[in-house]
Amino acid sequence: MLKKTLILIISLLVLLTGTVGIGVAEKSDAKTELVLALTNLPTSLDPLQDSGLSALTTYDLLYDRLVDIDEKGNIIPSLALSWEPTGEKVWTIKLRKNVVFHNGENFDAYTVKSVIDRALTAPESKQSAQVSLISEVRVIDGYTVEIETKEPWALLVNRLSRLWMYPTKYFDEVGPQGFSENPIGGGEYKFVKWKQDDYLVLEKNENYWRKEQSGIKKITLRHTPDITARINAVQAGEADMAFIIDPEQAVMMEGLGYKLISQPIGQAYIYFFRTTLDSPLSDVRVRQAINYAVDKDIIVNEIFMGKTRKLDGQPVGPDCSGYNPNISAYPYDVEKAKKLLTEAGYPDGFTIDFDGTAGLTPKDKEAAVLIADQLSKVGITMKITLNERGVYLDKLFNAKMAPFWAISLNYAPTMDAYGPLNNATSFTAHKSNADPEFDAKYLKWLAIFNPEEGKVISDELLQRYHDDALALFLWQVPGVYVLQPNIEGIKMRPDYTIDLTNAVVK
Amino acid sequence: MVKYFLYRVSLIPLIILGVVTIVFIILRLSGDPVSLFVGQDATPAEIEEVREEMGFNDPMIVQYGKYLGDVIRLDFGNSMRYGVPAFNLLPKRLPATLQLASFALFISIFIGILFGTVSALKQGTVLDAICSTITLIGQGAPVFWIGVMLILLFSVKLKLLPATGAGGIEHLILPGFTLGIFFAARVARITRAAILDIIAQQYIWTARAKGADEKRVFTLHIAKNAAISVITIIGLSIPSLIGGAVMTEAIFNWPGIGGFIVTAVFNRDYAIVQAGVVILAMTVAVTNIVVDFIYCYLDPRIKLGR
Amino acid sequence: MKAVNGISYSLRKGEALGIVGESGCGKSVSVKSVIRLLPPKSVRISADYIRFFERDILDLSTRELRKILGNKISMVFQDPMNSLNPVLTIGRQIIEPLIIHTDISKDKAKKKAVELLELVKMPDAVKILECYPHELSGGMQQRIMIAMALICSPELLIADEPTTALDVTIQAQIIDLIKDLRNSLDMALIWISHDLGVVAGLVDRVIVMYAGCIVEETLVDDLFYHPKHPYTKALLKSLPCVEGRIDKKLETISGYPPDLIQLPKGCCFAERCKYNSKLCIEKRPELIQVSDTHKVACWEYVKGVKQ
After folding, report:
1. Are residues B240 and B155 in the same domain?
2. Structurally, how many domains does chain B consist of?
């Protein structure tokens, strides 16, 4: 009896173990293949369904968009050749001809209209809020579209960088489910195989329209949420590149002979001041003093091992189109800080509540401790509360933040100054700043169509941001990638997209 | 027997009710529940929309009632990241976890019983000391330490086995052992104790007095009695095997339900965590019942329900 | 620790020998060591020979020894509840000696088991085969043990205090059963007990043990009517009498048995004995023949010794 039971159990286990086919994660062995360990794959290969930043890596390989972003944050033509405002609320966009999707379908004005309409109205679209100001898309001819917005919107075309183009006739045929299982794009790589939350295999689109193309013929993207697993994959030779690792791990890997790419992402980490509250922070001298009292270089070098850059006195980096090159970071000057505090009436400093985060961005906790220590040297005592994500968002949405609080301002993927500037207006949920002049200028900026004129205004806004010390400007969130030593020529952009044009596997 | 079985099964809904109520309370303890279902960049309009959708503006009793109704229909809310009902995402990831857990169970039973038996039969010898020490290390070392050590040795240094992912049998070995070692240690200790206890029993001498050779004494008399304790422990430990699978899946990037729930926890994707908790609770409840019945099948002295 | 201190006895085919003595005197150990049924790591047996018919048990390999156990020599243990495997049916346990020692088919073995159960007067023999030990009473379990011991028709049955764990009425039944079986089976018997009364009607000869030594050996009637060793006398005196006065105080033997780790160099019983002489303390008396059928180990009976 026992023997029979044993045999039954053993055969059951063997059966379970052997026959459940999970799938094969491909290994790269040819010199034209790459295996990338990403933090995660998109939840869907339908580019309207995952609006997360990390999905961009994948979408950028499979699809193209109307405009791309250069390293200064400016939009450059991709599938759109040119664009100009033709009315107060109208943009006319001219499209590239002779672009064909992977299934042979043509890219034209109807495609654009279809995509935008779907983005606005489909229940599964996650981009509807992003483009909600669009009221109508009109096809003028085969390669010209007109987009009308509800209000004048200077940054419309920047915002269009969030929408990836796909063959809409095919989509209508197969529906969102069918498209998800068998996606077709027009990008440099086309779909081969996908296992959700596991891996995605792409191969080179030999008919790609760009002049300069990559020599990589096959890419496997692996869904690897655990940071240690990503590094292990590289160390074990299973992946050629791992995305987003900790600065210390990066230094360790560098020591072992691996290559690093350090490309900070389009996210500015600042400590915001709630000037709307009655606290010592409502005095501009106090806020400036805090900026002088914090040594940002130490933070960048010690905590981030030099793998990122500090902010130049503004809530955006030089990779943002709105970056003002005339502003520089507040220098580290403890004496000046003390002087300002005394002027403001706080010669012995004060105590202030601080709402921070723990684990939402890399090293946020450690930095808070270091900054508190630095501020204590000018007499300011930070009473730190490190909030769990749920609690943090609760305070954010309900304007319950302490007078001094941390926020990671995202300006990717559009790489314009919209997000950071919006954060200092009174139109936010957290209600930290209410400067009517600032608000007015901001609205004016949104409506100016001429890029140069617009830049002037946004420069002024950023200058105001800096001079009024609306925030303690800290650092840009790091993006560290580790590669096998035999990989050369890969470039990363601040929006997690990868440039493989010159990639070479030795 | 059947009556008792029905009685035990009827308790399961009660257990689930308890679990989901605790989940309901915890969700509301950490502040505004809507913050668990939207992203940081949500506009005030979006926030209010989600509030309405999820019923967070209703009085608590109404919310609880709606919540229970949803749970019965297996509706745990939409995953924030995937945008689809959380419960739909879980079943297809179950086979991978079952595969890993079965393999780990398999090797841990095998190794555990082997070590435990050798240890017991050769009690007091060097072999016993070696086996016992290894067992102790296996039980004391945390799962993630074992996993990382194995990866370092076999994947990074020796490049023998893959460090991540699922695929053929070679992908199953490291995670299987990582998960199984702790379990094997526990099984070994119980086996050793059970066998030693039984060897000292009078009826073993009776068997010898009948002329039974040691092989017969072991297989028929010792093993059958030891099996009771061992199988009970194995059964009762299956919940912790599932728990260990969660960590193992994260380390090895194994595409199972455990790693999925871990990622959801880090992403604060609450709907998935909720659904996952309920599924795990169900698994534990069902496993315990199955173990109880196996136990009484093995030991004729136990009669259930009397 | 010397559990057994130089003992020597023999048994004839079909004869019944009783071994009596208090707990810890070594009676059980000595018998178990005869058939080497002790844990080999904890125990060392040193003997000149242990002869069973023509063969010396000490010379047998474990394999050869096992052929004899359960087959030619069987044992019944003291505590029947713990002597049966709780997870096997009675049937399986009873037929086990047959399975081990013969080539008999399972069905035939089961039939034999039923025969044996009827032999030991078990009601519902066929049903009992499917039962588990815990479902039966102590008396029934002991009968099963006996049936199990007899199923291969052994030459020698060793019974180690088989009735100690049972109540008196059951005790009587078991003893009667053994008597009947002896008559019909022509089987030798060694019966170990601490209860003199039990061996009285059952065996032919008796050995009295104290502190690992044999102190007296004789026919059963002689032991009760003409005991020689002071210890035996004291034992008999301490038996409660059914007749006579109820309020009479029970006789006891003062003192305690010696520590087996540190045995005295003289007679083991000396310090509790009323004849406690210098010789007794100095030198250990040997077992000497005082008549054809009677041996005793006491200086009292050695000729030429001063009292």
Report:
1. yes
2. 2
pLDDT of residue A11 exceeding 90: no
Q: What is the pLDDT of residue A417?
A: 92
- Residue in C with minimal Cα distance to B296: C87
Which of residues 34 through 53 in chain B touch A, CB cutoff 8 A?
Answer: 34-36, 38, 40-44, 46-47
* Residues of chain C above pLDDT 90, percent: 7
- Closest residue on chain A to B224 (Cα): A2
Distance from C-alpha of B244 to C-alpha of A48, rounded to nearest angstrom: 36
Report the CATH number that the domain containing residue B149 is assigned in CATH: 1.10.3720.10
What is the rounded CA–CA span in Å between residue A275 and residue A277? Answer: 5
Output the pLDDT for position A22.
Answer: 47
Confidence band of B122 (pLDDT split at 50, 70, 90): confident
Do B7 and B84 belong to one domain? yes
* Contacts by residues C243-252 (CB-CB < 8 Å, ≥ 24 positions apart): none
Q: Are A375 and A383 in contact (CB under 8 A)?
A: no
Residue B37: give the domain boundaries.
Answer: 2-91
Q: Which residues of C touch B201 (CB under 8 A)?
A: 82
**Which residues in chain B touch residue A408, judged by CB atoms under 8 angstroms apart?**
40
Say if B273 falls within a structural domain.
no
Q: Quick one: DSSP state of residue C52?
A: E
pLDDT tens profile A288-346: 999 999 999 999 999 999 999 999 999 999 999 999 999 999 999 999 999 999 999 99
The larger pLDDT score, comparing residue B23 to residue B189, is at B189
Length of chain A: 506
- Considering the domain architecture, whether residues B106 and B232 belong to the same structural domain is answered as yes
Tokens of A214: 């990559």
Question: Do residues B228 and B117 share a domain?
Answer: yes
Q: How close does chain B come to C241, measured CA to CA in Å? A: 35
Domain boundary among B47, B62, B91: B91
Q: Do B209 and C69 touch (CB under 8 A)?
A: yes
- For the domain spanning A64-172, the CATH number is 3.90.76.10
Asked, for residue B132, whether it belongs to a domain, the answer is: yes
Could you identify the residue written with the tokens 């609080």?
A405
Give per-residue pLDDT as tens, C137-159.
888 899 899 999 988 888 889 99
Summarize pLDDT for A215-232 with one digit per residue, the tens. Answer: 999 999 999 988 888 999
- Cβ–Cβ gap C82/B228 under 8 Å: no
> Which chain A residue lies closest to B160 (C-alpha atoms)?
A236
A11: closest chain B residue by CA: B106
Give per-residue pLDDT as tens, C242-266.
Answer: 776 777 777 777 777 777 777 778 8
Between A476 and B163, residue with greater pLDDT: A476
Answer whether C175's CB lies under 8 Å from C93's CB.
no
**C window 118-147, beta carbon within 8 A of B:** 132, 134, 145
B253 assigned to some structural domain: yes
Among B70, B91, B112, the domain boundary falls at B91
CATH assignment of A34-41+187-263+480-505? Answer: 3.40.190.10
Which of C279, C282, C269, C266 lies closest to C306, judged by CA? C279
Q: Does domain A267-476 have CATH number 2.170.190.11?
A: no
Residue B161 sits in the same domain as residue B197: yes
Read off the pLDDT of each residue in B144-158 and give the average, rounded to a whole number. Answer: 86
Contact with chain B for residue C82, Cβ under 8 A:
yes
How many CB atoms neighbour CB C44 within 10 A? 8
Indicate whether B108 and B222 sit together in one domain. yes
CA–CA distances in Å: residue A170 to residues A114, A143, A175: 12, 19, 8
Q: Is the dihedral of CA B36, B38, B44, B46 positive or negative?
A: negative
